[in-house]
Write a structure and sequence with these properties.
2 domains, mainly beta, 12 strands, 3 helices, elongated, two-stranded parallel ribbon, Leucine-rich repeat, LRR (right-handed beta-alpha superhelix), single chain
Length: about 260
């Protein structure tokens, strides 16, 4: 629906027994402070999918029963969200290191799915040390691509070398960060089953690394994940692969698939 002036009515705060609220694609630019009354929410999706920043008041910290939270892709620069008390969260999407402290994640030990939007305020090393505490994490996505599109982030994320991705329970990994070379095999989770790379602009062929990850069942390369011209899948690689998606790789000219790959 389209709300007048792009504002969610403050009367939403009267629905104190509400358990589920999804504002997906609602084109809202302003959320009311009365939302702090929705203390019984289990599910909250604020992914309103607009191209301008959303005003989000610091009211989420009081929703202690939340299990699922999806935050807007873009928030006002001065937005500061305290999320450390949301200890029951199992799914968190759109967590921004620009608008929340990465140490808030230390308390979310029940998290199984996490999407992090990166900013200059947080190094991979700092993020890695915080994520170490999330023993139940099964799905992780790291993304800074939208910042690059907006011209707000001009960093070479070769610093991915500092990031240890070796989480024992992690099954799915998404990387939307710039890097000239994919991390070495030993830096990936030992039981990784699904990987998605997007807008990474990797210059070296990622296949020699990926095909040695023995448990991979699906690989997705999207939106110039790889900007080299030649890609080779060698014999004996990808022993369990069931699905491979290669889309919008504008520089790719030659793909060699050896017999037995």
């Amino acid at each position: 629906v389209k709300f007048e002036g792009g504002k969610l009515p403050s009367s939403i705060g009267g629905l104190i027994h509400l358990r589920f609220l999804r504002l997906l694609n609602a084109r809202i630019s302003h959320l009311p402070s009365s939302m702090r009354n929705l203390k019984r929410l289990l599910y909250l999706n604020l992914n309103v999918a607009i191209h301008e920043p959303v005003h989000v008041p610091n009211v989420l910290r009081e929703m202690l029963e939340l299990r699922y939270l999806s935050l807007p892709l873009l928030m006002h620069d001065k937005t500061e969200l305290e999320l450390g008390d949301l200890v029951n969260l199992e799914n968190l999407w759109g967590f921004s290191t620009q608008h929340s402290s990465v140490t808030d994640l230390l308390h979310m030990t029940k998290l199984r799915s996490l999407n992090v939007s990166l900013s200059e305020r947080c190094t991979f090393e700092t993020l890695s040390s915080s994520l170490r505490q999330l023993r139940n994490l099964e799905r992780l996505s790291l993304d800074c691509s939208y910042k690059i599109y907006l011209g707000e982030l001009d960093l070479d994320f070769i610093h991915l070398k500092e990031f240890d991705l070796d989480f024992i329970h992690l099954k799915e990994l998404g990387l939307g960060v710039r890097m000239s070379k994919i991390p070495d095999q030993h830096q990936f989770p030992p039981h990784l089953e699904h990987i998605s790379l997007f807008d990474c602009r990797i210059e070296e062929d990622p296949m020699p690394i990926l095909e040695r990850l023995l448990h991979l069942k699906s690989v997705k390369l999207r939106y110039d994940a790889f900007v080299g011209r030649r890609m080779v899948c060698s014999k004996g690689g990808f022993p369990q692969l069931c699905a491979l998606e290669i889309s919008e790789e504008s520089e790719l000219e030659e793909w060699i698939v050896e017999e037995g790959s």
